[in-house]
Amino acid sequence: MAGAAPAQAFGGRPSADWGVQVGDVTGESGLVWVRSDRPARMVVETSATESFRRPRRFAGPLLGPDTDFTGTTRLRGLEPGQRIHYRVTLVDPDDHRRTGRPVTGTFRTPSARRSDGVRFVWSGDLAGQGWGINPEVGGYRAFDEMRRLDPDFFLFSGDTIYADGPLTETVALPDGRIWRNVTTEEKAKVAETLAEYRGNFRYNLADENLRRFNAQVPAIVQWDDHEVTNNWYPGELLEDDRYTEKSVDVLAARARRAFSEYFPIPSLRPGAREGRVHRVVRRGPLLDVFVLDMRTFRDRNSPNRQAENAQGILGREQLDWLKRELLRSRAVWKVIAADMPIGLVVPDGETDFEAIANGDPGAPLGRELQIAELLRFVKRRRITGTVWLTADVHYTSAQHYRPELAAFGDFAPFWEFVTGPINAGSFPANALDGTFGPDRVFVKAPTASNVSPAEGYQFFGEVAIDGDSGELTARLREVGGGVLFSQTLRPGLVGQ
């Protein structure tokens, strides 16, 4: 199914075999996504009851080849704190009497009452390093486990596909077992064409666990590097022999289009400002989620030790936007969803660096200058309740950033929680950079590189905000293994 081309014949009825998704839900609105197997008109109905008594109807777009038969419909006029049932019907554009079987889903809108609390999960890194959908181990098991927790939403922290990671039918494991991947034509090589990028996103939807999860849990999605290619930055020219297209800018444009087609993301819909992944999703009085884009506006990867670096990893415009939005937020907690960690050293080759840290524990240099500016702003403007969540490094850890341990101390203490992968190779823990004084309070990581999901080390995180006390509890979880670490934070503190 995942690699099949949409049917061009007009016989039969349109089908939505890839399921439904909901994204960026607020108290008043949300986005519903679907893909058809042929040209069709998308129609969404919502109801307060599963029986769909007195449904509201939302006319959606015409789904055709221009968007790979995908489409998104905005739901407006929703009420806070409600369970919404929805169904998507695909209608033959030439005969409205011919409709496909409705596909149903459900989600909760954020409550306007603080007392109701908030609970969500987050992770990243799906189908990487050669480890795809393996039916023999239950497919993408993490999504079934997260769904059973019944969270309010899922924060997908980047590396939602591995466009640069081809899959083979079998992989030999160190103990002699065989890992067996579901394979498709588009996953047989690195993605370069728009069709190949689309096929990478479609591949993941072949997993039943993910489709069931999508129908129950709305998402907030961001991207990182593997939606395009490993460690990419604007203007890069690849030296990878697997690619015939060497311009990363060309590849990124194709990947961005496929990304916007396969996730319900408001800022990337047709007519929206190009490249605008960063945004704020307001989840009621307890929580605002600030989604960062650490790819589109970054400078080139380098030794990262410039004494001046206005562009940094966010770009000036995005940094100024983030400062403004943090300042105007009235939420108790301000989760900063970063697609890369702050104080973990992530190299790119022998001399360059991929993330923020540069391996020098001294004063801020390179991309660290932008983070120093942001942390100083949070302290001096007395912005309370900031917590950083990320994935990217393929293990799980908790860092407490403390000024008394730092070379740069002009900030308030804060926490950064790292988790992932969901279904990808796991790797040893990265070194820490002392510039911002990270104290690694917890870590679980393998000692070998590219440990398969069959051996464990697959992680996600859970955040629960108590409606009465306002306390935020972050839990790091292992798939199949329960809670590994838990940290409760008090509200009303600058930084956190």
TrEMBL record:
Residues 126-476 form the PhoD-like phosphatase metallophosphatase domain. InterPro entries: Metallo-depent_PP-like, PhoD-like_MPP, PhoD-like_sf, PhoD_N, Phospholipid_Metab_Enz. Residues 19-109 form the Phospholipase D N-terminal domain. It comes from the Bacteria. This is Alkaline phosphatase. It comes from Streptomyces triticirhizae.
